[in-house]
Each structure stands twice: as C-alpha cells, then as structure tokens.
Write a structure and sequence with these properties.
The structure is a homodimer of 110-residue chains.
Chain A: H1 11-22, H2 26-37, H3 46-49, H4 54-67, E1 70-75, E2 78-83, H5 85-105
Antiparallel strand pairs in A: 1-2
The structure holds a DNA duplex (30 and 30 nucleotides).
Chain lengths: 110, 110
Amino acid sequence: MGATKTEHFTEKQNQIAILAKALGHPARVAIIEYLMSVDTCICGDIVNVLPLAQPTVSQHLKELKNAGLIKGNIEGNAICYCIDEKALKTLQSYFAAISSHLEKKKNNCC
Amino acid sequence: MGATKTEHFTEKQNQIAILAKALGHPARVAIIEYLMSVDTCICGDIVNVLPLAQPTVSQHLKELKNAGLIKGNIEGNAICYCIDEKALKTLQSYFAAISSHLEKKKNNCC
DNA sequence: TTTTTATATTGCAATATTACGATAATAAAT
DNA sequence: ATTTATTATCGTAATATTGCAATATAAAAA
C-alpha cells in the first residue's frame, strides 16, 4: 500500500487535494509568491531566487504545472511560467465558502 | 536527503505549506467537509463516513490536528473534533490576497 | 467485574516525495 | 560549427506518506 485511494472521493475533493498538495511545500509556495511579485512573465531567475539546486527547482515547477497552478511555455532557452489564475480562483472560492459557512454557524464547542 | 528544507523559507511560507499539505489528501478534505456539515461537535461517525479503515482515519485526524486545522477533545469514549476556524481563516485570507492581486494585474501572457 | 464500544498506537509493507549530481536537450551567441 | 547559457531528465539515496491488521487504551454499559 501507500497509494492514495482517490477513487473513493468526489471529483471536487480530489481536485482541492491536488491543488493543496501542490502548495504543500514551502518552495512551491515561494515560487507562486515570486511569480506574483514579478511583472514580466519570463523569469529565468527562479533558480537563483530559491535556496535549492536547479534540478530540484525544475521538479517543483513540474509539480506546480501538473497540478494546474502554473502555465508554462518555452521561450528559447528561457522559460515563461506564470500563475494559472483559474486554479487560484478555485482555491479562493473554496476557502471563502468554508469561511462564510463557519461564520454563519458560530459553533462554540471545543 | 528527502527532508524538506524548511529553514530556508519564511515563517509564513512554511505555515501556508503546512496547512496546504494537511489538505493535500482527499480524505482530509472530506473530513473537513464532514465536520462542517454536522451540527454537533461530537462526531464519532467519521470512521463510518469515510471509505477507509479506522486506524487510517485516526491517522488522518492526527495530521489535521498537528497542522492546526482541527481541534479535538476526548469526551468519554467518543471524540469531539471540530474545525479550527483560525487556520481556515488564514487560508481564506491568503488566497483572497492572491486573487485580488492577480485581478489587479491582469497579466495576459502565456 | 466483565463486556462492549470507540479511539489511539504500533508495526510493517507499498508507494511517494524530496533533493541533488550527472547528463541530456535546446536554442541563442560567438 | 562551437561555445555558452538555460531548463529538463535520469538515477539514486534519504525520508515521508498511505493504508491496514493487530493490539492497546479508556470509558460507558451490562
């Protein structure tokens, strides 16, 4: 064993889990924050910004891309990675819904 | 190797990563959603609701608790787990900030 | 007190993640 | 055509996660 039983959960639950998992590493959070901070879309300096070796950064970028959090095109020997707004909007909506639900409830146990 | 290099990232980045990682599994997303759906705080039926064995569920609950997403007290031989609103508020604020930042920017590359 | 009920812990096997050196691939620059 | 610069892939070691059977723990019920 060791493999997640995705088939037992809803599409939505799996989707949120995939996005959350992709952000479940500080390097990937840092990458998203960096992509937000730069104006340009070409940003070959991600490797220099992060305290990790180039193959490791490349791997993290791949995971963010697989999860759908970033989009990337190859521009010559530079990369053009940027945030996929749709994915982040999904997360924003999800947690906004949870928050408003919790506020309505005001349950005060625990 | 294989251990995350947390020390190279900011407190905030690590905090978000910890919360996101905890939600990086559909079972744990399902648990949060279930805790939201029930009115009561005592909810010993989590095990019956999920398609996983009892020790596995117990482990997922432990991880959610470690990450700070749920709070739990033992109430006799039942458990009282509930959502820690603070943690979910943190996530809500974080993604709200990202979303509003992205909307302001309207970058249209990629 | 013994049984029942409910959750936690232990131990283990299967799998996944993290990290990086070495190397490949690719395109711009010389 | 060769060099240079940049990103991707491969291979591998260390560690973490996932899942569950077996067992422990703890309190209510009998």
